[in-house]
Write a structure and sequence with these properties.
- By secondary structure, the chain is an alpha+beta fold.
- 41% of the residues lie in helices and 17% in strands.
- It has eight helices and twelve strands.
- Strand 11 and strand 12 form a beta hairpin.
- The longest helix is centred in the middle third of the chain and has 22 residues.
- It starts with 10 loop residues before the first helix and ends with a strand.
Amino acid sequence: MRNPHNEALSPDIAEGRKARASGPERRCILTGDNAPRDALVRLAISPEAPDGTSYVLPDALARAPGRGAWIGVTRDALSAALANGKLKGALARAFKGARMEIAESLPDMVEQALTRAFLDRLGLEMRAGKLILGTDRIAEQARMGGVAWLAHAADAAEDGTRKLDQAWRVGMDAEGSGMGGIRLPLDRAALSVALGRDNVVHLALAEDNSAERVALPLRRLLHFIGADGAAADDTGEWTNAGA
C-alpha cells in the first residue's frame, strides 16, 4: 500500500481493484449510494431468541447466512443514525417483518469486528509464511525490492519508520516519491498480542496477492473509523494524504 495516496502496489493489484469496482455492488441502507460490496460493511441478524427477537450484528466477513443489510458510512455517521432513529428505520425496511434489537454499542461492535478481521488476515498470512517481521529483515528485503506492502504500528518511532520507508523507496526505485508504509490504527501491543510475537512494530508482505488480501479488511476498517486516505506525517500523526 503506497502512501500518501494509498495507490495500488502493482499492475496485478491495480487490476484486482478495477475488477472489484466493476463487480457486484450493494446499496448502503443509510445513504442510498451504491458501491462495490468489498467497500461496504454487512450487518446481519441473529437467529430468533425464544421471545422472537433477533439481534443486529456486524458481519465483517460478509459470510453469515440469510438476508443482510449493507452500510458504507463512518463510525460517527453510524452513531448519529443510531441516535436519531434513522438506522432503526433503515434496518426495518431491510429486514422486513423481523423483530429486532439494536444494541447501543453497535458502532463499537462493528469496529471490533473489522479490527478482528484485519488481524485475523494478518495471522493467516503469517502462518502461510508471507508476513515479514523484524526491522532488520524488513529493511534487507525492502532494499532488494522484495516488499509489496509496508506498515507501522501506531506508536512506532519516527526514526525507525523513516528508515524503513526510505529502504522501501530505494528497493522500489521510487526515491523522491514520498511513498511510505501505512501507519496502522493499532499499537505494537495490539499487534503483538494478535500475532503472538514480541514487540511487533513494523510489518511487511512480499507478495502483491498477500498485500491485497490484507488491504481489503484494512480499507474497510480505515473507512469506518474515518481514516481512509490518511497517512502518517513526519510527527506520526494521522493526516489527510489527499489534501
